[in-house]
């Protein structure tokens, strides 16, 4: 697969983010987040629900204004959304008025690719996510897991330099999830894209990622960043290895401490 | 299709009842001519061309006013939804104008624009404008911003977003506004022609009524009803096609 994207890293320095709802009080979602994702590396984000994982991804995506701190890629400071940073949204964000094929063609068309070449490319990614036969379906006619795979195909087909993925396999059954993980690793190894991957599944993070950051409960900070690096093994039996299980257990303890922290009533 | 035919059964029953109560003398013929007599009058008016001669100018006025309202209303609605300054300027105007019955404007518009077609088109335009503005405004304001984000991260420019995301996402609301506007167009078309005109279906109803030609007058009313009904059905079909993605 020819991919014209250029691998690029991400450097986040001192990023804080406040939400100010029209009604209600200001919420600090991110606090002093500094994070470097090396070019071509696969970085997983773990943390309790509501800790700011999506917010961090939206900031890198350029959807939310950077208020305090900075985000930089090899292309420069992040100030707006752009096709160099592809996003798989937590709630899919497919265009409901477009069919699966039209959704996937959208990003391809924005790259200036048209006609038969565009359709071939779209079909390749539809096949990749096992949606062959559903090209003409509208998102509303698909199950949650199928919509999630369509969204994945749409983002991959647009060939971003950086992949920002918000629980991209959250709606999938264990079987399909495993297959999609393999496909993603395959594409990642082939293209050397930089990936930021949010998940609740510790084993998934340990299996896929080079590095894993564990975030604290709100306001979200990076508690610790560890390296994993099982993804290079290309070994389906990696799940059974004792060092893999050990790593999962270790990180699971850290995440649980943060979840417990989040449950504790706010005082003083 | 069978289903569709059956759903018109109530209309047939109504026609039959109409015939019955007038034939049995339950309602005076001076107040309501029998349905069959009205149909005969309708056939005459079709044959001598008087119906067509009056329907065409009416429909042209309605279409012109409606088309103008769609173009301007979409622009104003989209502007208000997207630009805070625009909203600050036009929002209060729309709110003030909203509860005003547009038929109250008939005399004023006639004074300003005369007694010809312009006045009638302006009136229809004004009446249709608000539902289009409101449909567009509410539709665009209600679009999930994540859809805009996903388009932007797939390479859409800010300009692309209006046509490629906001418009289709707001389409269900916009169509509701257009449907209301179409109904208003018929209402104002007849109202303005009733008051002053030398042709049009409203004029026809008025002059036939003045002449005491009640069966013909009812035939003209029936024609407007049928045209309004057809317009609405056509509109519903168009909506169903445009919104076929909403299972
Ligand atoms: N639009 C918003 N307005 C106000 N507060 C918000 C908004 N979006 C998110 N928040 C708050 O910011 C915090 C972080 O939200 P975010 O969606 O980033 O969490 P998350 O880590 O992605 O959670 P989850 O794992 O459940 O998806 C939450 O506590 C939430 O209440
Ligand atoms: Mg989230």
Describe the fold and architecture.
Chain A is α/β, with parallel strands linked by helices and 268 residues long. Chain A is 35% helix and 22% strand. In chain A, the strands form 2 sheets. Chain A has a 6-stranded mixed sheet, with helices on both faces. Chain A has a 4-stranded antiparallel sheet with strand order 2-1-4-5, with helices on one face. In chain A, strand 9 and strand 10 (222-227) form a beta hairpin. Chain A is globular. Chain B has a domain at 50-130 and 179-234. Chain B has 11 helices and no strands. Chain B has helices at residues 2-6, 9-23, 35-47, 50-82, 84-97, 106-113, 117-141, 145-153, 158-195, 201-211, 214-242. The model of chain B has no long low-confidence stretch (mean pLDDT 92). Chains A and B meet through strand 6 and helix 2 of A and helix 8 and helix 9 of B. The complex binds adenosine-5'-triphosphate and magnesium ion (MG).
Explain briefly what this protein structure is.
The complex is a heterodimer of chains A (268) and B (247). Chain A contains 7 helices and 10 strands.
